[in-house]
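Thread: "does anyone have the structure for this chain?"

Original post by V.I.:
We have the sequence but no experimental structure in hand. Need at least a predicted one for the grant figures.
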Amino acid sequence: MGCPLLRNVFAALILVLLSKGSSVHGAEFGHLPDNITVLEGESVTLRCRIDEEVTHKAWLNRSNILFTGTDKWSLDRRVTLVNSNNSDFSIHIDKVQVTDEGPYTCTFQANNKPRIVHVYLIVQVPARIVNMSKNVSVNEGENVNLYCLAVGRPEPTVTWKEQKYGTLREGEFLEITEITRQQAQDYECITNNGVAPPDQRKVIVTVNYPPMITDMKNMPAHLGKTAILRCEAMAVPPASFEWYRDDHRPVESDNTLRIKNEKTRSLLLFTNVTEKHFGNYTCFASNRLGASNASMLLFRPGALQGRGTGLHAGMSVIVCVWVSLSAALLLKV
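Reply from O.Q.:
Generated one for you, tokens below.
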């Protein structure tokens, strides 16, 4: 029974003999559905109902003989005979594989007439992502190409979803040209074929860009009191901060001044403001892509307004002197 040539010849003989009786409807001896659908990994029973006295019977898969009566021809241990009696001739396939898909034929000889019925086994496989882009880090303005490859039966669809805006794009490949910092986010790949819940994974896209100082302003301070100068900068990777005085000296911490650097900002903390603290301070933010700086004043309340008043008063004196000189010249003429 283990000779492949013998099995094929025997199967061909069975099909030839039974084809002569193919005009007989299956309803005369029982009914098998046209198609049976099963998930990969599940088990299935193929039933063949018999209501006549049978002399010979067999199960075939394509041209391969599985059983002739109770004799097993198949070497596959997953395929077993469930029943073999005058009313039922059924087989069971355990842990169905994709290769099990195809036509199955139940045949038997009853009252010297051949009987035959066909069933087609459809094996479905849930959609599954098998290969996907890794997390990626790029500089602003570069192009980004993401991919998400999926398998399944039937053929699955692949959809890209932007986590920030919920935008959907169809297809295994996602191309982003000249990416901006606003497009840095999680991108989710979703594949589905209706067999099982969708399979989904995320890829993180990081966009690097140089620092941009977003918040800085002049700050009034009273002698002997506390004060804070803030410098906030957006950057990827995060910026490093440095502070300088108006004479370009680096600012260093002491018992009245402390520098506190955080992820996106730097603070100058004055615990006891003195005269030496008033002046111009420059915040310098940098990373490997570039740098940005901004200046701000720590001043005594009213000092800026006083400077403005003095400027206007000086202008008035100059105008008066110029008018007086002009009048004297006219009188001499």
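V.I.: this helps a lot. Residues 303-332 form the longest helix (30 residues).
O.Q.: and Residues 216-301 form a domain with the Immunoglobulin-like fold (CATH 2.60.40.10).
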